[in-house]
Design goal:
This protein has 14 helices and 16 strands. With 459 residues, the chain is an alpha/beta fold. A five-stranded parallel beta sheet has the order 3-2-1-7-16, with helices on one face. The protein has a five-stranded parallel beta sheet with strand order 8-15-9-10-11, covered by helices on one side. A three-stranded antiparallel beta sheet has the order 4-5-6, with no helix packed on it.
């Protein structure tokens, strides 16, 4: 019997790991990457430092391939940037190991189906191979495969600014002054933001990282004014667990950002659900209502850091079983629901939770998390290890758990900050006028500072 062919959509960290596991199982991977190079999405945020160290960012099957070419594994405790992840891991994996012969770049998948079967036809459906259509420089191409792993990510489909999940009124017309994700405000995008009023919408780590960089830019470029637009009413929820976070870089970021907010270096506009974006003398007027009665703010630029959602458009002719709210595989959704979980409370999972109703089709990587923001790269590596075993028929290995995840900090309880979370973080930020980085230090006793805890106790 010929080796199974497995189509893998996306040549990011999880897609390349999937190819390594598939190849190690004696099957034939074919990786279809929309970008011109492997790791295309990572290249868009290569200036960003990861919150997890190297020990959580290297897949073991990929490492075994790299070991054969004399690769020096990075220090497991060091936190790489996206660029270092590319240079020291993804690029050599994609260009110097046997994976180089199975990656097809500039190949954007446009549709997946069962050969000879539309979505409605059932009899003998499972016997038909998958048919994957993609576009490259030569025009449309077709690939047939025994299984499909969709690890295409979510980078190309960011959430809009509108608080209701829709684009804000006027958002599309204002695109010239709007950026999504994490622009390089201290590097190649510096000229766009220097000396300008810049609003950042979002409450996750992408938003606070960008705001932190903007405060640095403000020190170097007078007139730069960072503004934090927050849909919720409690800024302290974004500060995280400090030293209690097992991902130390993430904890340090939250603690540092809390001090920036407390010092007044970031203007905070809480309770600001964006509804409309308009033009005003070449600037943006961002409002909480399309009518005249809401709050509004005028800025030069808007950075929307409200997360991402999966692109399901090319999966319209295969049978998916997705949670209607999270848009993750039905069996996985309760495990990752952001209303209940943080990335440290998601238990390891694999093929059983990720396979779709069209057997042989799996969602993996951050795309498998749908709209949940709790994904860790190492989770994706465990997913594809299990999936490759499942496709190869090794059910025991597919069911086995080979991963222990780091916990998040104490400021999140089940992923959602409870009413006492601010107390766990030194009472939240100090009043702007106080010479302190958190409420505890601003009190008469100043217990955190008095106890000698680092970062005024906030960390």
């Amino acid at each position: 019997m010929p080796a199974k062919t497995v189509a893998i959509i996306g040549a990011g960290p999880v897609g390349l790991a999937a190819a390594a596991h598939v190849m190690e199982r004696g099957m034939t991977p074919v990786v279809l990457e929309a970008g011109a190079e492997a790791g295309h999405a990572v290249r868009q945020w290569q200036h960003v430092q990861l919150f997890s160290p190297w020990e959580y960012n290297v897949d073991q099957a990929a490492a075994r391939l790299l070991a054969d070419i004399g690769w020096n594994r990075p220090d497991p405790k060091v936190y790489p940037t996206g660029g270092e992840l590319l240079d020291q891991y993804l690029t050599p994996l994609a260009t110097r190991t046997p994976l180089k012969d199975v990656i097809r770049t500039s190949s954007r998948v446009t549709a997946v189906s069962r050969a000879g079967f539309d979505k409605a036809k059932t009899k003998d459906r499972e016997k038909a191979p998958f048919e994957i259509r993609y576009q490259n420089g030569r025009g449309p191409e077709t690939l047939r495969a025994d299984a499909v792993i969709d690890s295409s990510g979510t980078w190309s489909s960011p959430n809009p600014a509108g608080a209701n999940g829709l684009a804000a009124i006027g958002e599309r017309e204002a695109q010239r002054n709007i950026t999504y994700g994490m622009p390089d405000v201290l590097g190649k995008d510096r000229g766009r933001y220097a000396g300008r009023a810049v609003a950042v919408l979002g409450a996750g780590h992408s938003a606070i990282s960008t705001l932190t960089d903007l405060t640095t830019l403000a020190e170097q470029e007078p007139g730069t004014h960072p503004i934090w637009l927050l849909r919720g009413t409690n800024p302290a929820k974004a500060f995280g667990g400090g030293a209690n976070d097992k991902l130390a870089a993430r904890g340090e970021l939250g603690a540092h950002f809390a001090s920036l907010v407390s010092s007044g270096r970031v203007q905070v506009e809480a309770g600001f659900p964006v509804a409309a974006i308009g033009s005003l003398d070449g600037r943006l007027r961002i409002a909480t209502s399309a009518a005249c009665c809401g709050r509004s703010i005028v800025v030069d630029e808007l950075i929307v850091a409200t997360g991402f959602r999966p692109d399901l458009s090319f999966l319209g002719e295969v049978r998916l079983r997705l949670d209607p709210a999270i848009e993750a595989p039905m069996a996985l959704a309760p495990l990752i629901d952001p209303n209940e979980h943080s990335c440290g409370t998601v238990r390891p999972h694999g093929a059983r939770e990720l396979v779709q109703d069209d057997w042989g089709l799996y969602l993996a990587g951050i795309k498998s998390y749908g709209r949940a923001p709790t994904f860790l790269m190492i989770t994706g590596y465990e997913q594809v290890r299990s999936i490759a075993a499942d496709i190869a028929g090794d059910r025991e290995a597919a069911e086995r758990v080979e991963l222990e995840l780091p916990e998040t900090g104490v400021c999140t309880r089940g992923g959602v900050e409870g009413p006492d979370s601010a107390g766990n973080c030194c009472g939240g930020p100090a009043p702007v006028q106080a010479d302190a980085c958190c409420a505890d230090d601003a009190s008469a006793k100043g217990t955190a500072k008095a106890a000698g805890r680092a970062s005024c106790g906030c960390a």
